Sequence to fold (454 residues):
Amino acid sequence: MTIMNDETREFVAMHRNEDVRELALKAKRVEGLDLPLALDQIAGWQIARKKLPQWASCEGIVYPPHISMEQCSSQFTAQYKSEIAQTLLAPAATVRARVSDSGESDNQTTKSEPQLSDSAESVMQTAKSAFQLSDSPESDTLVARSSMVDLTGGFGVDFSYLARGFSQATYVERQRHLCDLAEHNMAALGLDQARIVCGDGVEYLRQMGPVDFIYLDPARRDEHGSRTYAIEDCTPNVFELRDLLLAKSQYTLVKLSPMLDWRKAVADFDGAVREVHIVATGNECKELLLVLGQQVHEEPSAPCVFCVNDNQRIDYDSASYTQGLRIGGKPLPEAKNYLYEPNASIMKAGCFDLVEERFGVTQVGPSSHLFVSATPVADFPGRGFAIEAIGGMNKKDIKRLLNGTKQANIAVRNFPLTAPQLRKKLKLADGGPVYLFGTTMQGCDHVLLRTSKI
Fold:
C-alpha cells in the first residue's frame, strides 16, 4: 500500500470538497505530490461521506480506487450485519442487562419501527437498542473472549463493524494490497483486536480451529469478470463448504445477491439455514443474508425471515407462510379508501398473506402486490396513498379519473401496459401530487387508481 506523504495529505485536505474531474485537469504538479493517489482519496472520501459517514469522520483512513468504494457495503448494511451477529451470540440475560442499564424498555418502539410480533423481531429490536454502534469507532466491544473470522475480507467495511462485537477478529484476504489497506485502516479505526491474514479463505477455514462466528461475502464475478448470481458460480462456492462451516463455527453469515430466490437457496442448503435477512435501503434490495447453523432438533425447522427496509422491519416464521401468494380467501372491502404498496424487502420475501394478516389490509388481485383498506393503517411497511377514484380503461372512466390532470407519477403492477406505455396513452407528464396506479383487481379487471400520497 502506498502511504501518503505530507504533500499528498495536504492536497487531499485542501481539495476534498472539490470536483475530482476538474482537479485531475487543473491541479498544479507539485514536487512530492502523488496526484493519482490524492484523487483516489478525495473521491473515496466523497463517497464515504454519504455511504460510510463514520469512516469519513475518521482521520487516517486510506480509500481504495473508485470501483471498490462503489461496491463496498454501506454503513447501514454493515451495522445491520453486526446487529445480527450480536443478537445470535449474546445471551438473553446479557441483552436484558444492557437494555436495563441504558434505561430502555424491551417493548420500546418508535413510530417507524412498530413492535410487530413477540418472536424474532422483538429480539432483533432489543439487540439493536442494546448494541447500537456509536459514532466512536473505538467503542462497543460486546462479547468477552468471543472470536470471529471474515474469510473474504475485501475492503474491510463489513469486517470493521462485525469486529467491534468480538474480542478476537480475523480478516482473511488473498490480495496483498487489500490486506495492507485493511491493516492500516483497522488501526486507524482503533480495532486493536483485528488480525490481518493474507491468504486463501478456504484454506484458512480448513486449517483453523473453531470460532463463534464466520462471515463470507463470496465474489460474484467469474474468471472473465462477468457478474454471476448463482451460489455455485460464486467464489468460494458456499454449498461445497457447508459441512465445514457448520463444524467450525456456531453461526455463519453468508452475503448473497439480492437477485437470488431465497426459498431455493434455503432448500439447497438442506436444513442448515436458521435465518434469512432481506435487506433494503432507500426501497432498493441490497443484500440477501443467510445465517447457517447446526440443526437444534431432529426434524428440520423452517428459518425465520427478516424483512428490512431502513427503519421498517418485520419478521415471520417461514413455515407458516410458505407461499405468501394466497388470493381470494379475503374479499375486497366495499370501501376502498386507502392503497398500500409494500417496501422492496417484503416484495422480495413474497410474504403477502402475512401482510394481510398483520396489517388488516387486502390484496387487490392475483400477483398485483398492492393492498387496499377501508381505514388508514399505521406504520405500514411501505408507501401509503389515499384513493381518490377508481376506474377502468375506457375513455369515459379515464376522463373522469384524470379530470383535467396534466401530470402524474405512474406505476403499474400486474398490468398489460408498462409505465411508459401507460403514460404515453394517457398523455401525462411526469411528477406532481397525483399518483396513478395501473393494476389488476380480483376478478381480472384492469383498473386505474388515482391516489395522493399520505
